[in-house]
Protein: Metallophosphoesterase
Organism: Sulfuricurvum kujiense
Amino acid sequence: MRILHFSDTHLGFNDLEILSVQGINQREADFYDAFTQVIDAVLETRPDYVIHTGDLFHRPHPSNRAISFCLSQLKRLSVARIPTIIIAGNHSTPRTRSASPILAALRTLDHIFPVFEEAYEKVIFDNINFHCIPHINDEEANLAAIGQCEASVDEEKHNVMMLHCSVGAQFMMEEYGERVYPRDKEGLFEKMDYVALGHWHGFGSVGKHPNVYYAGSTERTSSADTRNDKGYALITLGDSLEVVFHPIRLRPSHRLRINAQASADIFDDLRILGSSLEIEGALLTITLENLSATQSIDISNRDIEACFPTALNVQIQRKFRRTESAATAESVNAASLQEYFGAFLEEQTASAEEAARLNAKVATLFARYDEVTRDA
């Protein structure tokens, strides 16, 4: 028996002020493309079942476009008569019981089984039971659901448990309302043929449990996530468990770090680092570490971006060297900041001419700041 496990598709996610050729947010389009790749893989491999372990949508109330896209893709599985079980995650669960869960819309599709009622639900087939615990806001209700699951194991069939939570603190995402699975209930995993997890965005098994796996997300929701291991898991249940990860194509993402204190030419270093990477259409995060104030003034974001003209987006972070003068400057109010900064430049530069040149730049920047705040 084969089961395709994927998760955390976050349909409707958008980021960056960049539009695709179709006129929608490019990052939103990337998430739709990733989802489509998985659905294509389902129709090609024809597993017996498909399971999705939460955060189908990025928000409890997604846009019409996200809903329409999702329904059209899941309809492909419905027409193919492939049973698909989907549980709610924390992102797609309303925070109040009075709001209507978006996954209810999936009930209109044959062979699609959404589980979203903040309670344990068993989806039953002839040869397998899916024990589903969606995201549940209430802690007591969550514990009750685990207890119901434990009492519902059928040893005459295969048993697959579906959860959207952290199994151990190391898998926490630091998000509102996320659940941590109780450590004293982990013995339940041993009664399952497979435990399918959602919430953590990386693929992999969990600790000492050889049958407990996160499928990971299908796209990146943060610049801090540069994993290229996005895709789905194909599970084979038989005499033994086999879990094989299948990556999908993603927009390349890279993090570059430059130690400005040790660099003779920051731009040359950036070009050298970039020469070995796939930059076309990439998401780049560049961190300049140990910058001095004088260096930072001479390094514009525009000049850094020009080193990577084919990248989709370049995000730049600056981390400064901490000096005694900088610490003093932090304690003064904004009205006197330009004066303190000028004194700092005179202290840091090698000549009066260099200090004057940089102070002229600083004066221009403060003048622009005054114009913006005056017009605001």
User: Anything to note?
Assistant: The chain has nine helices and 15 strands. The longest helix spans residues 352-375. The two ends are 63 Å apart (CA to CA).
